[in-house]
Amino acid sequence: MVLSESGERLRLMINKAIEDHIITPEEYDEIIHIATEDGYIDPQERALLAELQDMLENKVVKFAKKE
Length: 67
Fold this sequence. Notes:
Layout: H1 5-20, E1 22-23, H2 25-36, H3 43-57, E2 62-63
Parallel strand pairs: 1-2
Helix pairs in contact: 1-2, 1-3
């Protein structure tokens, strides 16, 4: 399956969060921005967002604490 340009950027951002096991509020905002910037969340983007949400709910990826 070929990802759209925004889908590929989204995948890279989510993969970084997975590798770090941490996501900052700024990174989360950027992920949402990328997913919605064209006004349409395509099926690949929807799947990536669902995967991220699942990881957040299961605490595989955690939000960074505010300093």
